[in-house]
Every structure is written in C-alpha cells, then in structure tokens.
C-alpha cells in the first residue's frame, strides 16, 4: 500500500527533518561531559582479578592471592619459594 503525499508536504517534511538532524548534530558537536570536581572515589576498591587461564601467565593449578603490580620483571610477581619449617 503506497502512500502518496502531495509535493508540498514532502518539502515540509524535508525541511523539518533537516532542521532536526542539524539540531542533533550541533548538540553532539557542542556537548561536553565534565566530571565532578573532585572526582568521586570508586566503589568497591580496585575490583577482583580473575585467573581465566587463557595464556601462559594465567594457566596452571596454583591460584595466588597476591595483588597485581605494574612491574615488568617476572621475578617480582613470582610467589616466594616454599621453605619447610625446621
């Protein structure tokens, strides 16, 4: 079922559509989000790290409870060797 609109309504619709699109484009262009000052502290601390076991660093049976660090040295992130008590 095709709808036939007179030419005058098509021009009105085109003008209104162009104005709305231009208004939305201007709003998106000039809109800027400013966060609160001072920033809000994150809730829940730093979150939870999960060991998915998808690569060499995340595979294995040992689950460490140590927190992650930003060091690139692999020796820094290795847990201490287990020593028997004498």
Task: Give an overview of the whole structure.
33% of the residues lie in helices and 0% in strands. By secondary structure, the protein is mainly α.
Brief rundown of the structure:
The chain has 86 residues and is an all-alpha fold. It is built from two helices and no strands. It has helices spanning 7-30, 74-77.
Euclidean distance between termini CA atoms: 91 Å
Largest sheet: none
Number of strands: 0
| Strand percentage | under 5%
Order of helices and strands: HH
Number of helices: 2
Shape: elongated
Any descriptors?
86 residues; elongated; mainly alpha; 0% strand
Topology:
Elements: H1 7-30, H2 74-77
């Amino acid at each position: 079922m095709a709808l036939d609109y007179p030419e005058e309504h098509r021009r009105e619709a085109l003008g209104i559509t162009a104005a709305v699109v231009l208004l939305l484009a201007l709003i998106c262009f000039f809109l800027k989000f400013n966060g609160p000052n001072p920033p809000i502290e994150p809730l829940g601390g730093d979150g939870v790290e999960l060991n998915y076991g998808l690569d060499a660093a995340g595979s294995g049976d040992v689950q460490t409870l140590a927190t992650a660090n930003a060091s690139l040295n692999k020796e820094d992130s290795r847990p201490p060797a287990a020593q028997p008590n004498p």
